[in-house]
Amino acid sequence: YVGKAKNLKNRVSSYLTKGANRKASLLRKQIKYLELIITKTESDALILEQSLIRKKKPPFNVQFRDDKSYPMIHISSNKEFPEIYVSRKKQKEGVSFGPYANVNAMRKNIEIIQKVFQIRNCKDVNFKNRSRPCIEHQIGKCSAPCVGLISEKEYKENVEEAKNFLNGKNKSILKNFYTKMDDYSNRQDYERAKLYRDKINAIRDTQKNQSILTLYEDIDVIAVSSDSFSTCLSLVQIRDGWISATKNFFPETKNIFTNEDLLEKFIASYYFESPDKEINLLTSHKLSLETIKSFKEIDKRLNLIKVNKQNKFLLEIAKSQSSDRLKRKDFYDWIAPAFENLRKRLDLKFLDKIEAFDISHISGSNVTASCVVFSDKGPEKKEYRSMNIKNDKNDDYFALAEAISRRISSLKKRSLPFPSLFLIDGGKGQLSKVKKELENKKIKTIKLISVSKGENRKEKYDKLHIDSVKKEIDLEEWKDISRLVQFMRNESHRFALTKHKARRTKTLTSSDLDQIPLIGESLKKELIRHFGGIKRLKDAEINELKKVEGVGTKKAILIQKHLN
Q1: pLDDT exceeding 90 applies to what percent of the chain?
Q2: Calpha distance 463→491 (Å, rounded)
Q3: Which of 174, 214, 503, 545 is least surrounded by Cβ atoms within 10 Å, i.e. has the fewest?
């Protein structure tokens, strides 16, 4: 099955939920693996989805098997006077341009081609049976080759210019048109000079908004992404103008090679074994001349394609793919070993789960605490919890103590085991406060550590504080553990911030607005969204309030009266 989704979590969950429709139930029984491809826009995702369905013909995509696709512009080639037309299928003869996700942009291009290059768009049966020019010629959209008003040579020159236009080679076209305009002007043939001036203006006014998948038939796009711990090379393969496959590679580098070195080594190993004699490459990093020459020695040609406006987005897809795969790299690859190393460093008999805490607020308002849970398999998101701290104070120590106390009480109430370790975002002060709270609860089985920001708030200078030995460690010394601790700390911060924002938004849409009659929940949210908050809403004039959908004069007066 091939599908696309704006929200990946919701889409995948819909197939895994019990009670789903029959297709989803059948699909769920046969799932073996999931492959993810990231695209720049939703339009590109739609195009890619259809190209993969055509290529792989997956049995669960029955509704898309009509082989319809996004439209393409075609210019025929096996005729004296080629025509331009639109089709949703790639034609065997002639030249195809597209596919176009933006149909309006495609139509605009055809309009420009007819206006500037005057290529016919009639069918052969009409073309062969005309005795006088049609209305297309009368309105300046066709050069009327059907009745001999243009020579075959001149017409084909126009066709080539039209192809250049569709390929984005506007500079050469404009240069040619400027030359002709000046030439006719010097000859005082002002009517023809004006004609080329209008053509120049038409091309200059055209904005290339269409999303074309690729102008190359076969090309491999490779991008490299790396972080402090690992590297991912993503290969996006274009075949017959479509993205046909993506592959990801995770070299065991030990961080001793640069991304340029890794790209060179990958290309050497991957393409030396390839049966292809000619390889078109678009890469995120430059290749050395030595690598290119080495392929000549084995009778292969490596063509390096320069990044331009037409192919730049392909490289961005590969870059997004590699950076995302780097983030999503199987948790078992590094979390399980990091868990074990942390257990040894802390001298624990076992380390099953770690719970990380953080506090989020703005000057003591809407104070929210987060608790995120990790096992050696990664984040256990179903066990995440957030807490609205009861007393709004600008006191992280107080909020942290309340969060720890409530977490312990919750685990006890549900008869759940305590985790092996608590990770606190903060320094010695926060650690000491949590220790006292655990002592008050008579909890002795939970180990305590905290992580504090280092010099210039850079992660590489972060420090780990261990309560039991009153020790401070530079995380740079424990690189394998550093990634785990920082990952958990950042995740607890993200979760706390998300919940705090949601709480703050809810507060903003309530309070003063709740007291106004005839103002429902949806209108409250729309008012806050439109004005950005209560303060600007209070300052709004009647006419400004009426700009919000659903607010007439009566409601505007009512809102202003209650808020002021």
Answers
A1: 18
A2: 17
A3: 174
- Token readout for 417 is 């085991």
CA distance 537 to 306: 52
Distance of CA 34 to the CA centre of its chain: 18
Residues 172 and 123 in one domain: yes
pLDDT digits (tens, 9 = 90+) for 162-211: 888 877 677 778 888 888 888 888 888 888 888 888 888 777 765 344 33
**Do 390 and 441 sit in the same domain of this protein?**
yes
Question: For residue 437, how many other CB atoms are within 10 A of its CB?
Answer: 18
Domain of residue 51, residue span = 8-64
CB 88, CB 72: distance < 8 Å: yes
Higher pLDDT, 34 or 217: 34
The residue among 46, 93, 85 whose CA lies nearest residue 69 is 46
Q: Which of 263, 255, 259, 214 is nearest to 235 (CA)?
A: 263
Domain count for the chain = 5
Q: Which pair of tokens denotes residue 352?
A: 């099953």
Residue 189, both tokens: 């043939």
Q: Strand, helix or coil at 379? A: strand
Q: How far apart are CA 536 and CA 497, in angstroms?
A: 24
Residue ranges of alpha helices (H) inside 17-131 are 22-30, 42-56, 103-112, 124-128
Residue pointed to by tokens 């919750």 = 410
Q: Tokens 């030595």 belong to which residue?
A: 290
Please give the C-alpha separations between residue 133 and each of 126, 140, 144, 146, 152, in angstroms, as whole numbers: 11, 11, 6, 7, 16
- Residue ending a domain, among 19, 34, 64, is 64
- 432 exposed, middle or buried (CB, 10 Å; 0-12, 13-18, 19+)? middle
The CA-based angle 274-275-277, given to 5 degrees, is 100
Amino acid at site 46: L
Cα separation, 44 vs 321, whole angstroms: 14
Q: Which of 391, 404, 361 is nearest to 493 (CA)?
A: 361
Q: What's the pTM value of the predicted model, to 2 decimals?
A: 0.44
Out of 437, 466, 496, a domain closes at: 496
- Examine the domain organization and report whether 305 and 363 are in the same domain: no
User: Alpha-carbon dihedral of residues 450, 455, 461, 463, nearest 10 degrees?
Assistant: -20
Stated length of the chain: 564
- The backbone torsions φ and ψ at residue 240, rounded to the nearest 5 degrees and listed phi first, read 55, 35
Residue 414 has φ and ψ, to the nearest 5°, of: -95, 5
Q: What's the pLDDT tens digit per position in 476-525?
A: 778 778 889 999 999 999 999 999 888 877 665 555 667 677 778 788 77
CB 453 within 8 A of CB 443: no
Task: Provide the token pair at 143.
Answer: 């050069």
